[in-house]
Each structure stands twice: as structure tokens, then as C-alpha cells.
Automatic annotation (TrEMBL):
<feature type="binding site">
    <location>
        <position position="176"/>
    </location>
    <ligand>
        <name>NADP(+)</name>
    </ligand>
</feature>
<keyword id="KW-0472">Membrane</keyword>
<dbReference type="InterPro" id="IPR001509">
    <property type="entry name" value="Epimerase_deHydtase"/>
</dbReference>
<feature type="binding site">
    <location>
        <position position="59"/>
    </location>
    <ligand>
        <name>NADP(+)</name>
    </ligand>
</feature>
<comment type="subunit">
    <text>Homopentamer.</text>
</comment>
<feature type="binding site">
    <location>
        <position position="44"/>
    </location>
    <ligand>
        <name>NADP(+)</name>
    </ligand>
</feature>
<dbReference type="InterPro" id="IPR036291">
    <property type="entry name" value="NAD(P)-bd_dom_sf"/>
</dbReference>
<feature type="binding site">
    <location>
        <position position="221"/>
    </location>
    <ligand>
        <name>substrate</name>
    </ligand>
</feature>
<feature type="binding site">
    <location>
        <position position="307"/>
    </location>
    <ligand>
        <name>substrate</name>
    </ligand>
</feature>
<feature type="binding site">
    <location>
        <position position="184"/>
    </location>
    <ligand>
        <name>NADP(+)</name>
    </ligand>
</feature>
<dbReference type="InterPro" id="IPR011912">
    <property type="entry name" value="Heptose_epim"/>
</dbReference>
<dbReference type="GO" id="GO:0005975">
    <property type="term" value="P:carbohydrate metabolic process"/>
</dbReference>
<comment type="similarity">
    <text>Belongs to the NAD(P)-dependent epimerase/dehydratase family. HldD subfamily.</text>
</comment>
<comment type="function">
    <text>Catalyzes the interconversion between ADP-D-glycero-beta-D-manno-heptose and ADP-L-glycero-beta-D-manno-heptose via an epimerization at carbon 6 of the heptose.</text>
</comment>
<dbReference type="GO" id="GO:0050661">
    <property type="term" value="F:NADP binding"/>
</dbReference>
<feature type="binding site">
    <location>
        <position position="151"/>
    </location>
    <ligand>
        <name>NADP(+)</name>
    </ligand>
</feature>
<feature type="transmembrane region" description="Helical">
    <location>
        <begin position="7"/>
        <end position="25"/>
    </location>
</feature>
Length: 348
């Protein structure tokens, strides 16, 4: 494949955000994808098998495969990770979220390839230092679980590197929701669980607050629709590799936009507006045209002291970098997700 037609690597491509990324790239005319993940997980098969791609590579074979085939790659979108916040064996997170990511980084350095990778708002812990994607606070952050620790450890490692990919960004995902998350079980969004509870019992059970400063159901999170997440990643990809925008415009007949040089670093990716879990559950009821019926249950003891009661992304850095599109409001994103995917039994 010529340098004018390089590949795009997407890791985590069988998972929630990764499979949505592949779908978005397909819709933008990109089929020259190398997708990597653990493809032996049967319940994820629906997420990836009908999408368009050039090569499927098992995640543990990726680096050997790259050495063997030497593909020309335009950009790496690294979304693969162990995302279970209730997995307390740090060695698992260390291997998949830190060491594997370091190998991805080194590959991008060696091959001079731009890198976009998934970090997480879990790095912010209880929010003692706010939710600002300021590099100066990264060393002071105190995540509440091993997953958040692993994501923060890689962020810290990346910021200390003298030799870097030509362009790179670590995106601190806040509470992402949307289609293709059905396989995540306990880790799926509250929207997914709320929809299923409504279908089964006609009610939604939310966690009771175990802090006096928050009423039941009034815990606040920054919920961001996955369609916005992949849209931001695509925008970053074009900023890092303007030739991709030119190629896509040639395919679609649209005019290409040349971008200024990209500023490397960490970026928040939320909406910038915190909303309550009660609002979320009530909007899910509206998505199935029912009146809210919400009750409260105790939070499981194993996550009670590791639970974020408030998150809200400061989005100014992304805006300063030039991203101007409006994010889905919670009600609009949720209505699209519930009506067009959950209720319809479809993936994206």
C-alpha cells in the first residue's frame, strides 16, 4: 500500500468505543483499517464482524504482526484497555493499560506515526484538584481505583518522554455512553442498565447517596455520547495528518480543510456539563415514552469508598485547539441511543 494510502490502526476495535470508531471511519470512507483486540470474546462479535477493514490482528500478536508485515501507517488510535473499575488486581491493569500502551507509543516513535490514545476521567479521583487537563497537576492526582491509577501512570509516563510520536494526544474520557456497550455487563452505562430495568420491571433502581452533601440520585457526572467521542478523535486525526482530510475530501467531493500544527498532550473529553443520575434515568423513561418510576438501593460496599460523586470536564483546552462543534445534550444523545439502538436491538 502506497504512502498516499496508509493504514489506520484501531486497538480495542471489538469493544464499545473502538467498534464505534471503526464504524465512524467506515462512514467517512476509510476501510484501510488494521483492527486489533481480543477477538475470541464471542459476545463482542456483533461489534466488529460486519464492519469494513483490511486486517484483523489479535492484540497479543500485534507487534509481531507489524514487524512481519511492515505496513505503512498514517495514525494509531489506541482505545484498547482493561476498563473494569472493579478489577482490583493491579497487575492486570499494569500489563494492559501501561506496558502495552508503552509498546504502542514506542512503535509510533520508531515509525514516526501520530498517536491518539484513551486516558480517563478516572485519573481525577475524587476531584481534589479539579477536572482540568493541566499537565502540572497530573503527578498530584489520586485515582480511586487501580484502573484510574493505571491510566494516570501512563499519562505521567507519556509526559516525561523526551522522544515522542510526531503528534500525540491522551484523551481523558468522562462517562461515555452509547451503542455497542451491551457486552460490558456491570461496567455498561447506567443508561443501558436503566433501559433493561424499565423493560423488565417498569422501574429504575439508582444508587443511594452515602454522602450527606449529595441527595439520592443527585450524584453528578459528565455524560458524553460516544458519537461525539469518535467525532473528536476523527477531528484530531485530521489535525495530526492533514493528508487524511485531503484524501477523504477526494473520496466524498467535500473541500479539505488544512489545519494548524497540533499541540501535543492530554485533553479532557466530556461535554463540560455535569448532570445527575436522576436526570439520566428520567430521560431514559422518556426515550421509551413512559413516566419515570425511580427507586434507590444501597451502593455495593466494594465500590462505595471509590465512587466519584461529581465529575465535570473543563473543555477549554480542546476548544482552544480549535474544536468548535456542539456536543449532544444528554437528552438528545440519550433519545438517539434508546430509540435507535437499544429499543431497536441494533448496534452502530
Amino acid at each position: 500500500m502506497s504512502k498516499q494510502q496508509g493504514y489506520i490502526i484501531v486497538t480495542g476495535a471489538a469493544g464499545f468505543i473502538g467498534s464505534c470508531m471503526v464504524q465512524y471511519l467506515n462512514e467517512k470512507g476509510f476501510n484501510n483499517l488494521i483492527i486489533a483486540d481480543d477477538f475470541g470474546v464471542e459476545e463482542k462479535r456483533r461489534n466488529w464482524e460486519h464492519k469494513s477493514y483490511a486486517h484483523v490482528v489479535e492484540r497479543y500478536n500485534l507487534f509481531d504482526w507489524l514487524i512481519m508485515h511492515e505496513p505503512y501507517v498514517d495514525v494509531v488510535i489506541h482505545l484498547g484497555a482493561r476498563t473494569d473499575t472493579t478489577e482490583f488486581d493491579y497487575a492486570i491493569h499494569q500489563e494492559l493499560n501501561v506496558e502495552y500502551s508503552e509498546k504502542i507509543w514506542q512503535y509510533c516513535v520508531d515509525q514516526n506515526i501520530p498517536l491518539i490514545y484513551a486516558s480517563s476521567a478516572a485519573t481525577y479521583g475524587a476531584g481534589e484538584h479539579g477536572y482540568n487537563d493541566d499537565h502540572n497537576v497530573v503527578d498530584s492526582l489520586q485515582p480511586l481505583n487501580p484502573y484510574g491509577v493505571s491510566k494516570n501512570e501512563f499519562d505521567k509516563w507519556a509526559l516525561k518522554q523526551v522522544v515522542t510520536p510526531p503528534s500525540w494526544a491522551g484523551l481523558k474520557f468522562f462517562n461515555v455512553y452509547g451503542p455497542n456497550e451491551y457486552h460490558k455487563a456491570r461496567m455498561a452505562s447506567v443508561i443501558f442498565h436503566s433501559f433493561n430495568q424499565i423493560q423488565q420491571n417498569g422501574e429504575v433502581k439508582l444508587f443511594r447517596s452515602h454522602r450527606p452533601d449529595f441527595k439520592d440520585g443527585e450524584q453528578l457526572r459528565d455524560f458524553v455520547y460516544v458519537k461525539d467521542v469518535v467525532k473528536v478523535i476523527y477531528w484530531m486525526m485530521e489535525k495530526m495528518q492533514p493528508s487524511l482530510a485531503s484524501r477523504q475530501s477526494a473520496n466524498t467531493g467535500s473541500s479539505a480543510t488544512q489545519h494548524a500544527s497540533f499541540i501535543n498532550g492530554l485533553y479532557n473529553l466530556g461535554t463540560g456539563t455535569a448532570r445527575s443520575f436522576y436526570d439520566l434515568a428520567a430521560a431514559t423513561f422518556r426515550g421509551v415514552d413512559k413516566e419515570p418510576n425511580i427507586t434507590f438501593i444501597d451502593m455495593p460496599a466494594d465500590i462505595r469508598d471509590k465512587y466519584q460523586y461529581f465529575t465535570e470536564a473543563n473543555m477549554q483546552k480542546l476548544r482552544n485547539a480549535g474544536y468548535t462543534d456542539i456536543f449532544y445534550a444528554l437528552e438528545d444523545g440519550l433519545d438517539d441511543y434508546v430509540r435507535n439502538y437499544l429499543a431497536a436491538g441494533k448496534i452502530w
